[in-house]
Task: inverse folding
């Protein structure tokens, strides 16, 4: 598969389980997971997603999973990281290890929900920090997020991961927002 260079990030492959559209039935999965204190939904849907795409070979060559981290403030508010919950379900089905502490979100500048494309990018610029370069150097990492709208969060996180040197990134999300 040819590499795509999205904002100078070597993206190998990317997929999502469903199109995300606000107030659609599938959006309820995300709402329940993120805002109604149902972390178990992330694990269940992560397993379903992995089972669905595993036969396509999507996970071939991937060395480990990196869930998009939440800022400490948001993690305290919610009590869990929805991307970690999804990652745990994917890991259960694929056997891929989760790299939990290789990158961190060092600030929370507010939700991306009501921001436009450029504001989203600016909101996450420089908020991720690589904390363990040796753990991910020379690896193919699967970055997991709940919903991708503009891709700003994944790109910002991937940029931080790329500082470790010679890595490849693939992206997996539950939802991909229609534009």
Result:
């Amino acid at each position: 598969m040819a590499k795509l260079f999205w904002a100078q990030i070597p993206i190998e492959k990317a997929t999502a389980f469903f199109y995300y559209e606000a107030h659609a039935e599938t959006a309820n999965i995300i709402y329940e997971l993120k805002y109604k204190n149902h972390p178990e939904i992330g694990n269940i849907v992560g397993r379903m997603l992995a089972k669905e795409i595993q036969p396509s070979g999507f996970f071939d060559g991937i060395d480990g999973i990196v869930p998009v981290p939440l800022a400490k403030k948001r993690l305290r508010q919610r009590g869990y990281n929805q991307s970690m919950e999804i990652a745990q379900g994917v890991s259960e089905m694929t056997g891929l290890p989760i790299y939990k502490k290789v990158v961190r979100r060092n600030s929370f500048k507010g939700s991306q929900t009501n921001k436009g494309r450029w504001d989203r990018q600016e909101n996450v610029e420089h908020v991720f920090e690589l904390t363990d370069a040796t753990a991910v150097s020379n690896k193919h990492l699967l970055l997991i997020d709940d919903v991708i709208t503009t891709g700003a969060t994944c790109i910002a996180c991937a940029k931080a991961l790329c500082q470790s040197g010679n890595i490849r990134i693939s992206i997996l999300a539950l939802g991909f927002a229609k534009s």
User: Anything to note?
Assistant: The radius of gyration is 15 Å. Strands lie at 4-6, 9-20, 64-67, 103-105, 128-130, 140-148, 168-177.
